[in-house]
Amino acid sequence: MQWAFLLLLAGLCSLSRAQYDEDPHWWFHYLRSQQSTYYDPYDPYPYEPYEPYPYGVEEGPAYAYGSPPPPEPRDCPQECDCPPNFPTAMYCDNRNLKYLPFVPSRMKYVYFQNNQISSIQEGVFDNATGLLWIALHGNQITSDKVGRKIFSKLRHLERLYLDHNNLTRMPGPLPRSLRELHLDHNQISRVPNNALEGLENLTALYLQHNDIQEVGSAMKGLRSLILLDLSYNHLRKVPDGLPSALEQLYLEHNNVYSVPDSYFRGSPKLLYVRLSHNSLTNNGLATNTFNSSSLLELDLSYNQLQKIPPVNTNLENLYLQGNRINDPSTKNQHSKPSKNVPCSQSCSCDFQPLEGSISLCTIRAFSENF
């Protein structure tokens, strides 16, 4: 029986040798084929060098050496840049563009500033209704070439930059989601009462450096407004009403000649008011005009005041230089500070405070009248 088994084994060996005479490495191939059934399941290619698949080919949930960087977006206009690291931002600024390019639907932040764009055609943003920021400042946009409903469809828009253009009218209607509106350095002449209707989330409104002569009651409904800048215009009167949340009011470089009695009481959070370079006189100011306990800084410099107007005792800084004030209570302006009046950290205790209400900073500013 043993002899029969040995003869059979010898025959198989001779057959195998004859089969692989042409391949001197047959034994290596044999071992490799046997080992391939015991590969590590976590190693995709145990015996061949691993090379990742090219983009666009589905290989599986993970790569052997980590996930590759995302491919370049293919829907970005050739006039713009869409960085892969910021897939929702599109940069088209400073390109000498004369028109607005196509905006992909995934965009949330678009930058078109400092170009030669003169119009915003209707429907240009219809494909990107999720936009949060639109920067169009530093162009040549005119009011006649802005689509009527161009912005109202953008229900998530938070910041709109249209400053440094050629607008003559307030744009609108605007979405309720808007938080910042930049319209400064244009040619807007008036703000209609309904121009800002529904903007209950607006916190900052920039209208400085325009030709505005009248504001009316357009600001009353802006219940979240914190900052209002109407400086460098042609206003003859202050707005009819201020929002209750207002903290900063800038009205310098206008033609305002009067402020109503208790005007600021409707804004209990108001901190800073600038009315310098106007036409204010004492006849145009009532006794309680500036009697607001929240006010910290009041700038009345470069007006036509002849007397210091009454202010609240909480006021820290009052600027009066450039007026016509000739008040006998300031004759001792170079005397030593009173021991009964504390010196504010923001003030220099160089002068005697005015009796009754005004802080040391007041005298410091007032002294520049002489």
Automatic annotation (TrEMBL):
Residues 323-343 are annotated as: Disordered. Residues 1-18 form the signal peptide. Pfam families: LRR_6, LRR_8, LRRNT. Residues 323-332 have a biased composition (Polar residues). GO terms for cellular component: extracellular space. Keywords: Disulfide bond, Extracellular matrix, Glycoprotein, Leucine-rich repeat, Proteoglycan, Pyrrolidone carboxylic acid, Repeat, Secreted, Signal, Sulfation. Affects the rate of fibrils formation. May have a primary role in collagen fibrillogenesis. PANTHER family: AGAP008170-PA (PTHR45712), FIBROMODULIN (PTHR45712:SF4). Binds to type I and type II collagen. Belongs to the small leucine-rich proteoglycan (SLRP) family. SLRP class II subfamily. This is Fibromodulin.
